[in-house]
Amino acid sequence: MSRLGIDIRPDLLDLALTHRSYAYENGGIANNERLEFLGDSILGQAVTVMLFTTNPDLDEGDLAKRRASLVSTVALAEVARHIGLGAHLRLGRGEELTGGRDKHSILADTVEAIIGATYLDAGGDVATAFVLRLIAPLLDDPDRFGAAMDPKTSLQELSAALGRGMPTYHVSDSGPDHDKRFHATVRLGGDDVAQGIGSSKKQAEMAAALEAWTRLSVSADGR
Question: Which of 93, 121, 141 is the last residue of a domain?
Fold first, then answer.
């Protein structure tokens, strides 16, 4: 894990890389979910302060949208792939067989866990610098902010340019009324392209649209 550019105690790094599926299959050992919880907070604070200080002309709404684009599951999974994180995950057999090493959610959660481990081992200043180094490649992509601010329109425009037709959304929900989660699937030409989860139908559709836009952008760049 030399590409991280930081020194973390081996035991903390192992914990940060341990998915709950691996922990369950190995006698219920500790997993990375507590570190993920901590890292999510450190990530949010570092990105918020950076955006606030470097964009004095942006209002609260635009700052919030930019932050969302940088800390989203899609963005963090992109960061994880950039540093080759997938190869180092500790996964259970089920996740191994279903492509867990490249799942957006697992990669993003592990990035947050590593940020949490960095904070515990090296302190806040080092953890903040680490976060800013991780997201630097995302900041170099100005199109990302446009898509994050209006992902459904951005996806519609990109899909039309690629000849993929008009996106359609299919939403379901789960959970009790007081804690309902919405699951959206975006389709292009009858194919399921991406999924998103949110606390409202709108949030789920926007999450799915942003993930679809990211995937289409990557495939278009690779043509």
Answer: 141
pTM: 0.70
What angle is formed at CA 109 by the lines to CA 200 and CA 70, rounded to 5 degrees?
Answer: 65
| Residue among 11, 14, 33, 40 flagged as catalytic | 40
Q: What is the pLDDT of residue 143?
A: 65
Return the pLDDT at 56.
93
Catalytic residue selected from 78, 95, 112, 211: 112
Q: Report the side by side order of strands in the sheet with 181-188.
A: 168-174, 181-188, 191-198
Helices (DSSP H) in the chain: which residue ranges? 10-16, 20-25, 33-54, 60-71, 73-82, 93-97, 104-122, 124-139, 142-149, 151-161, 201-221
Q: Are residues 111 and 29 in the same domain?
A: yes
Predicted local confidence at residue 131, as pLDDT: 95
Task: For residue 112, indicate whether it is catalytic.
Answer: yes
Last residue of a domain, one of 83, 108, 141: 141
Has 40 been annotated as catalytic? Answer: yes
Mean pLDDT of 155-167: 90
Residues 31 and 103 in one domain: yes
pLDDT band at 54 (very low <50, low <70, confident <90, very high): very high
102 annotated ligand-binding residue = no
157 belongs to an annotated ligand binding site? no
Work out the average pLDDT over 106-120: 94
Predicted local distance difference test score (pLDDT) of residue 77: 86
- Residue 95's domain comprises 2-141
Flag whether 36 is marked binding: yes
Q: For position 154, which CATH number holds? A: 3.30.160.20
